[in-house]
Write a structure and sequence with these properties.
InterPro entries: AAA+_ATPase, ABC_transporter-like_ATP-bd, ABC_transporter-like_CS, FeS-cluster_ATPase_SufC, P-loop_NTPase
Keywords: ATP-binding, Cell membrane, Membrane, Nucleotide-binding
Bound molecules: adenosine-5'-diphosphate, magnesium ion
Structural class: alpha/beta
Domain ABC transporter: 4-248
Family: Belongs to the ABC transporter superfamily. Ycf16 family.
Order of helices and strands: EEEHEEHEEHHEHEHEHEEHH
Protein name: Fe-S cluster assembly ATPase SufC
Helix content: 25-40%
Number of domains: 1
Length: 252
């Protein structure tokens, strides 16, 4: 069975139903691109899967390896191997970046019955990961995202991804705000992690990046429902015709 099975998920924020009966599969090792107009619910899906308390799952399931994530705390979902990079990565004042990443890595290791990382080994791989992503080493000693530029925040999310090597990564508009070198670094990192077994849901508006990602599946979300399912051709068609697609274009 697929690594992730989302079944009939309904998500409310406050009084409002933002996702209506969303179902999707992410087979192990695959990459799913999620497209959709602004406000269609892409980030809501990520936040709900990650377990953000404001996103109220009122119906449905999200099975990771057959185990329902709904009802688990956000940190328990992370331990189970889920990773979300935020569309707008928040500051975590007072918490140094290297400690934050190391704590997250050790929590995952602990849940697998592995020993905590040696401090020296951690720093060595964090430094090399930062270098791969074009982040200065000094970023590791600064509070998470505090004073980071938009692009640096995105790169920092990618550093967490590279270090954590999750089973399933949800990347929410990771390419927005990144320069060309940053986009290249994302694509290279995704390729490397895919080869190591990580599966992906990638939210993106940019066909150029989507082409490079070679997705297995492309989904279009519309007003909180999966409106279309396809492959790269669907992304190309959306890039040509926009999101205001009528039934005729959707079928063409
Ligand atoms: P997308 O990521 O596809 O642009 P979002 O998931 O961010 O869309 O938002 C989906 C809808 O939910 C939007 O109409 C948005 O205004 C609404 N929404 C998101 N977060 C909140 C919130 N905290 N309170 C009220 N409405 C929200
Ligand atoms: Mg948006
Ligand atoms: Mg969004």
């Amino acid at each position: 069975s697929p690594l992730l099975q989302v079944r009939d998920l309904r998500v409310d924020i406050g009084e409002r139903t933002v996702l209506h009966s969303v179902s999707l599969d992410v087979p192990a090792g695959s990459l799913v691109v999620l497209m959709g107009a602004n406000g269609s619910g892409k980030s809501t899906l990520g936040m709900a899967l990650a377990g953000h308390p404001r996103y109220n799952v009122v119906h449905g399931q999200a099975l990771l390896d057959g185990k329902d994530l709904i009802g688990l705390e956000a940190h328990e979902r992370a331990r189970a191997g889920l990773f979300l990079s935020f569309q707008s990565p928040p500051d975590i004042p007072g918490v140094k970046n290297n400690l934050f990443i190391r704590t997250a890595m050790n929590a995952v290791r602990e849940s697998r019955g592995e020993a905590p990382l040696d401090a020296f080994d951690f720093l060595k791989s964090a430094k090399s990961g930062a270098k791969d992503l074009g982040l200065p080493e000094t970023m590791l000693g600064r509070p998470v995202n505090e004073g980071f530029s938009g692009g640096e925040r995105k790169r920092n999310e990618l550093l967490q991804l590279a270090m954590l090597k999750p089973r399933l990564a949800l990347l929410d508009e990771i390419d927005s705000g990144l320069d060309v070198d940053g986009v290249r670094a994302v694509v290279a990192l995704i390729e490397r992690l895919r080869a190591q077994g990580t599966s992906f849901i990638v939210v993106s508006h940019y066909l150029q990046m989507i082409e490079l990602l070679k997705p297995d599946t492309v989904l279009r979300l519309d007003q909180g429902c999966i409106a279309e399912t396809g492959d790269l051709e669907l992304a190309r068609s959306i890039a040509r015709t926009g999101f205001a697609r009528n039934a005729a274009t959707a079928e063409a």
